[in-house]
Structure formats: C-alpha cells, structure tokens
Amino acid sequence: MRCSGTIDGEFDTYKLYLWRKAMTIETRLSKKTYYEQLAPEGKENPVQTLGAMLFEEHLKEDGDATDVRFAQGEVYFHYKDYEAAIFKWENITGYFEQWAVKNRADAYMELGMLSAALDLYKSIETDSTVLQVETALQLFSLYLQQEKQEAAVSSIKKAVRLDPDYQNIALIARAFFEEHEDWDNAVELAVNETIRTESLDWADVMISYIKRGLTDRFEPSYFTDALITLNRISAEHFEELVLSLWDSYEGKPGYMPWLLHFNEVYQTLDGETSHSWRRLSKRYEETYLHLISGRYSVKELERVLPAFLVNWLKVSDSNHAVLSSAAVLAWNDLFPGSISEETVYQAGNLVSWKQPDSAAGMEESIKLFDAVEKWSLENEVETDAQTNWMVEELLDLSTRHLLVAGSASSGKSSFINSVLDEPVLGEESSTVVIVRDADETEIREVTVGEDSRQSAGRFIEYSLPSAFLRENQLMMIDSPGFNSRLGGRNEVHNYINLADSLLFVLSANAPFTPQEAEFLVRIREQNPGMPVHFLLNKIDTIYGEEEVRRVYEDTEERIHSVFPEAKIFAYSSHYKSSQQVSRFREFLQMAVQAPGMGSRVEKLLYVIRNTITDLFDKRMQHERSLEKSITWNEDMVSKLNGALHQLEDLEKEKAEDISRYLHTVKEEIRTDMKVKIPELIRSCAKLVREDSDFGKIHLQLNEEMNNRIQLYMEDTILPMYRDSLHEWIASSHEDLKNSQAFLNEMANGFNKLFGTERIELECDFRVVDDWRRDVHRMTSGVQVEKHNILLRHTPSQLLLKSAGKLINAIAQSKSVMVNRYTQYIENEDYTELTESIIAKFLLPFDVFESGIVRDVNLFFDHPNDVLKRTVNETHAEISAKQSKLLEMKNSLPQFRESLTMFELRLRQYEWMLLGSR
C-alpha cells in the first residue's frame, strides 16, 4: 500500500505501529535484506550466524526455522549461490511463502532460466501491494528479455496502477514508453498522473505530448478530468492545455466534437477571474470566424455555438468583449432562446457602453462584402453593377453625397443646371443621374439588370469639370420626380442609402404638399438618421417681398411641424447671381454633413443586407428560369418531333409521287413498244414477193426486221422517252422546290422560337442534277441487239427455209411460198421477242427507277439530320438543366445556410457599430 503522508484519524497507535512494522519488513523483503534483521550487520558472518540459529531451532521441540531458512536464501542469493538459495526457499510456508516463490523466480532469472521464472511469477497470489508491484516489475524485466513488448507493457502498467509512487515506477514507465515510442500509453500515463498527483510537471509532459500531435486518436472527453484538475490548480496551465488540444483537433474529424465537449464542460467550471484569458479569447474569435465562414451546416453550429458563445463571453478580454458580445446578440437574433437571457443581457450591456470602432467596423464590413461577392460568384448569383458601384462610392470619405429629390413640377433639373452653371440635365427623366466632378466630361450608363431598357435597371453617371462640385466636395444624385409615371419614387428609395443628406426641391407655387410630406415621412422611416433639408425653388414667380416672406414663413412652419431640424433655402433657377450661389454654398456647408466613418459603415451594412436578400431572390429566380427553360425545351422537342414526322411523311409522299410518275412514263413506253415492235415485224411480210430469192429471203427479212426495230427505237421511242423523262424531271424538280419552300418556312418558324438562326433545312438539289445526267446518258443513243427473228430453229422456220431452197427450182410454186411466208410473218407470236427487246432496252431505266426512292431520301437527308441533331441537342439541354436544377434544389439548404452565416456576421457588425443606438 502507499503512504499518503498523513494517517487517517481512525488509526490507533497500535495499528500504526503494526503498519509501520509491516512496511519495514516488506521493504527488507523487497531488497532481500530480511536476513539483516536476524543477523545484524557488524557481527560475525551472517552465514555462520544464521547457521547457528537454524541449529538452535532444530534442537527445540516446537522450533520453527522458516524465517531463518528464508534469510539464509537471501544470503546465498547475494553470494550468487542461486541453487542453494532456491533450495532454501523451497517449502517455505506462512507469511514468507509468496515472497519465497518470488525470490526463487528471481534466482531462476539470474540463472537465465526464464521459463521457470515466468511460471513462478505467475503463480504468486498475495494481498501485499509491495509484492504485487515487485512481481510486476520482475515480469516487466523478464518480458523485455524475451522481447515480448505487449506483455512488458501490460506488466509495467499493472505496476503503475498498483502504486505509481513506488520506487518512481511512473517515471520508469514514462521513460520506457517514450523509448519505445508507445505514445498512447505515454499519453495515458501523463493524463492519469496529472489528475492523480495534481503535479504541474506531469501537466507539462501531457501538454508536450499534445503539442507534438501524439493525442489524435483520443476522444475529447478523455481529457475532461485533466481539464477540471488544471482549471482548479493553475489557470495558466489550464489555458495552455485548452489551446494545445484546440490546435491538435483543428482540421481533423474530432474538431467539432472537441468544441462541443469542451464548451459543455467549461460551462460547468468556475473560471479564474483574476487570470487574463487573452490567448484563449483570441482563439475563440478566430474559431468563431472560421465556424461562420460557411464550412459548417447550421445544424452543426446550433449544437456547438450556444455554449461556445457563452464561454467566449466569459473569457473575453477588453479587446474582444464587444466582438463576443455582438456575436452572442447576433446569434440570439437569428436563433432566439438558444442562449440564456442572463447571457444576452450581459452581452447587451457590454455592447451598449463600448464606443464603436468605426475604422475596424469599416474594415470588417468590407471583408464581409468581399466574402459575399466572392461567394456569389462561386454560386453563380453575382452581385449587380449598381451594388458594386454603390459600395465603391461609400468607401470614398472625401466626397459628400447629396440626393436631390422633388416632384416633377418642382424645377429640380433647372436648379441643378443653375448651380452647376452647365446644362447638364434636360427635362425630368425616369433615370437617376449621378453628377460628379472630373477632369474631363464623360457620360456613362450603368446597367443594373439584364434589361437595359428598364429605367429601374440603369443609371447615368455624368462626370464633368465643375468648380462648384469640387469646392464643395460634392456629388449630386438627381432622382426622378417622385410622382413620375415610371416610378421615380422607388428610385429615391433605392439611392437614399447612398446619400449623406437629402435636399428636397419644392415649387414656391405649391410648396410642401400633403403628397410631398407623406413621401418624405416614408423616406424618414426608411432612414431615420438621414438629414432632410429643403430648397424653395421658383421663388421668382412670386410677386412682392411681402408675399415671398409669407410663402417662405408658411412653408417653414409646415415643414418644421414634420421635420423640426430641417433648413430651408429660397432659390430662383432663373436668377443668375453669384451672391445667390455663394449663399447656397454656405447653406450646403451648414446643411450637408461631411461623411462620417460610422455613418458610411452603417450605410455599407445596409447595402450588404440588401445584397444578401437579393442573392436569395436571384437564386430563386434562377431556379424559376431553369424550370421555365426546361418546359420550353420540352415543348420544343415536341414541336421538333412533330416536324420530323411531317418531314417523314413529306419524304415518303414525294418519293411515291416521283417514283409513280417515272413508272407511268416507263410503262407508257413499254406499252408502245409492245404494240409497235410486233407491227414492225409483221409489216415486213409485204417484202415477200414472187421474185424474191426464197433461198435467202429469210436472211433478208431478218435483217430488215432488225433494221426497222432499230429505227423505231432511235427515231420514235428514244425521243419520246427523252421528252417524257425531261417532263418528269421538271415536274419532280418543282415538287422538290415546293418541299424546300415548306421546309424553309418550318425552319423560319423554329428560328423565331429559338431566337437565333439555329435551324437550316437546306435540301440536296444535286440529286436533280444527277437525274439529268443519268437521263442524258440513257437517252443519248440506243443500240438494239440484232435478234434471229426468222433464223430460229422452230419447225415452221425449218420448213420455210427448206421449202424455199426447193421451190427456187420450181417456179410454179413461188406463189405458194409467198402466201406461206406472208401468213407465217403475220400470224407468228412475237411476244417473247418483244419482251426481250423491251427488257434489254428498259434495263438501265429500271435500275434508274429503283434508285429514285433512295435519291429522294438523300434529298431530305440534311433536314432530317438537322432536326434529329436539334432534338438531341435540346434533349441534352433539358438533361443538363434538369441536372442543374436538381443540383440547385439539393444545394438550396446549404445556400440558405451560407446566407444565414452572412446574416449572422452582418447582425454581429450591426450590434458592434449600432448597438449603442
């Protein structure tokens, strides 16, 4: 057991004596010096002394020599007579039994008999803490010799667990763990010893491990007790531990769990009020800005930030008190009820009495706007040109911004032209005009939205050399008349935040009408701190000084009933006087304030708030635009598919019509040939006369028949077929041109819908040229193959030829032969011959006809391809936009959360800068 340095009051003197005696004996037993108690040092050799004592015990009837034998074993061990020592320690019973087992194991260790030693060590069973620790240490040594790392670790950890103070075991364990780079156990040891001993030395060791990155695998909760301990004994070490753990978890999966756990624990701890938590306060600030940078979901932050902010407020030093207080108030604004009322009240008090740092506020506001702008670009919802321009103008603290407003009949434009001594403005317009001093005259139109035709989507920046503007360090913002047809009233509201002061121009003929008063009250509600002053224009239209004074005083009284701080200046745009301009300069110096840093920061924050709102509106508008585009494209796909079906029907119709026409022409030729060729052959019967040479008449007739057929084909059929084909080509060409006209009309319709010349449905008229070429080739000539019309070996022909040769010798029979030849020629069936001639003649035309459908298809190929490609492209656009829309809808929660984080930062800056108001 371990002595804590104090003995519990319940111990009596006797128990204390026994405990000390036991501790003294165990100390001797652990060092194997128990023998010194029996054989004191300085006397004769302990071997002799113990031997004599053993002999005396043997002589006694009830002698017990156990302690003497045990002591003899110790002496033999020290003399390295290990076998004798083992022998002496065998069969030891009673109090010394387990110590004897341990000593035997020690002897076997010295003899190198590790297995035997191991078995003995493991067999020890005792309640003695000292013996358990000694055994664990010996096992530790044995396992190291056996190179059993895990077993050695287990043994040394057991020894530490039993009594860390025993012979500096904790330090031994630390050295062992560090030597073997067993950092998990080293960390565990350092943490436990810090908690147990409350030693700052051990705390330093633990913190050094953390700083070296050796604690990554440990959950944040593992260090809870160490945090509690150091918070109680040393604020400096507590802060060092917290910052070290903070650094170690940052950027790793355990970071958010660490923030959550630590702040939950720290809420329950009593902080050291005398300690300056400067470093921890700074770390809270850095982490807070990191947390609200958009990297984490609102759900994650809702778990972490409430306790985080409470603790930040608790540790904040004077440099961070306003920032942490504003963060608490901003979070409470967005998530009411998540922070206690007491903390919110405390934060409110801190903000209210602290003087705002306008310069720092300007810097932070610019950073916030830059962050919003960068984020908007990454998320494809860019800020508009007007916003960027307005921010640039607000950052220019050297120029005062004067917003000039008034009704359309107030003579506002003529007043501005008068003081500038330049015809800058014409009649009242619906567009805002910014007039500023510059080295050269330049007029620039700035478009806000996509539609530059909308007056609300643009403004004019008119730069010119102007002594009046330069001397008064002034920029004038001319707004449309508030009751103008195009909504100038809204334009005043849009630009009021840019102005440092508002100068409202009244007409002396009807000054400060109820409508004007109502309009200005609304302006004041939007900008409560905006200075409003008045210019009573057209004073020259009032006759008589008394009447002028009456109108002025009456107007002043009515104005002061609504705007008691307002100043009024009487002016005549048509009265050119240096004195009037000089007085107006004095009026400006008094009425128009120089831009203050705080005021400009407030306006900048207002712009940022509007920007955040606009970005969400733009995002939703983008989604609606995508949905509309998808629907439109789907409708276009339907129309394009309908056009494809129309084209398919047209193509089929034209192919059928053109093929049918060509087939009709060919069949007419075929019919003519079927009739004419047999007639031509039969007409040759007239060539048979009685004076014919019947021996050769069949040859002559055959030749004539072929000649007549050839002439018929060349002179009749071919010209007729050529003319018919040309008519067919002309008709087909006209049909195809009509088809092209139809497709052109279709393409124009689609292009109007697409808003661009996207579709071009030009057909391939080269097929008509191919037809002309083919027809010319096929009808340029014909060569009919000579047929053996009368030279065939039919029975009738053989009979006629044989008879002819015979009858040549018999003159009386020639008339008979004439009749027979005539009858044969006239009555013979020439169908087969005719079909053969027709087939051979029409063969190229048949091939030509068979390709007509393919040619018509080729004619329409390009329109088909264009429409199909457009369908595919439109499908691809639909798919891409659907994917984009799905992505946007899925990312909308993250989009909202990012805007929420920007709004949180904005609210924080508003509390920091405007909280006192």
Automatic annotation (TrEMBL):
It comes from the Bacteria. The keyword Acetylation does not apply. Residues 469-527 form the Dynamin N-terminal domain. Residues 633-660 form a coiled coil. TPR repeats lie at residues 133-166. Keywords: Coiled coil, TPR repeat. PANTHER family: SARCALUMENIN, TRANSMEMBRANE GTPASE FZO. This is GTP-binding protein. It comes from Metabacillus mangrovi.
